[in-house]
Amino acid sequence: xxxxxxxxxxxxxxxxxxxxxxxxxxxxxxxxxxxxxxxxxxxxxxxxxxxxxxxxxxxxxxxxxxxxxxxxxxxxxxxxxxxxxxxxxxxxxxxxxxxxxxxxxxxxxxxxxxxxxxxxxxxxxxxxxxxxxxxxxxxxxxxxxxxxxxxxxxxxxxxxxxxxxxxxxxxxxxxxxxxxxxxxxxxxxxxxxxxxxxxxxxxxxxxxxxxxxxxxxxxxxxxxxxxxxxxxxxxxxxxxxxxxxxxxxxxxxxxxxxxxxxxxxxxxxxxxxxxxxxxxxxxxxxxxxxxxxxxxxxxxxxxxxxxxxxxxxxxxxxxxxxxxxxxxxxxxxxxxxxxxxxxxxxxxxxxxxxxxxxxxxxxxxxxxxxxxxxxxxxxxxxxxxxxxxx
Length: 390
Prior knowledge:
Number of domains: 2
Cofactor: Mn(2+)
Protein name: Damage-control phosphatase ARMT1 family protein
CATH architecture of the largest domain: 3-Layer(aba) Sandwich
Number of helices: 15
Oligomer: single chain
Helix content: 40-55%
Domain Damage-control phosphatase ARMT1-like metal-binding: 21-366
Distance between the termini: 29 Å
Strand order of the largest sheet: 5-4-3-6-7-8
Shape: globular
Strand content: 5-15%
Pfam family, one: ARMT1-like_dom
Keywords: Hydrolase, Manganese, Metal-binding
């Protein structure tokens, strides 16, 4: 499929997407039954969902579900068909929506609004490892934005945001430029990003990915942009409700802000500044329903399109946002990134660790080397890229 542009499907035995449905989802449901005091009804509903995805046909949401209308449109033509005939992007997204429904998240009951992944997120956020990472911020020097030190600091924070909890928040500036925990980036657009922001300070949209230890470096990066004047305002886009296990919601965002404020040293200073930026309106947290849609950004609604069009830069974080940005298809890896995101209404950058099949914007030599030396490079999580169309 390397040279095709077919949608990524999940019913191909042995594929990464097949493993998500046949291995990851059963483990997830088992883990929820271990971590949470589920009722017999909830356990039955989760088991039925798992069976439906693997052997049944796609059922619509109940008519009285608060988002039934949206999902009727998002799933048009898919209901009543076997799950295996739906694309990986759509099916995985709908699985998580149905999982919340099985637990009663949207019902008026005791589970209403309870994040089933919340306990795991909280344990990560308040673990001892985070204390050490936040302390690492004390080792980062203050540098003027236009100086060599300021550029190195910005690169370090951008790279820490890219790698999430795989990179210490105090990511050492002495690490080789363009490198990360597993070696050089496959694409490095950092210099272009900094030049763009320096020339056009304005409003930056950052579309977040995961909560907890991965959202903290995102917030530190946001503080750097605001504190140095590279951004006049930042809109942080998060999910309106739990999604894909660890995705960030508004509640997760405010928990991270409190975590920063309760730290010491530089981390506390970052937390205090961000707290004031929220109060002043320079940092806005937004949770648009489309953030949990099973569709690519080419199909975004007009209000979200206007938001991104007015931004000096939109930064897309993480693997899922990358798939939605470039299209979850078997593109040739050498397809130019600018072509893949030509539909996007404004300047856009992607910070992405590779954890799925989709990849664009690589040179032919890099693709050939990876294919020869590491056949699973697209999904191993060992490689990353920073790409921009400005």
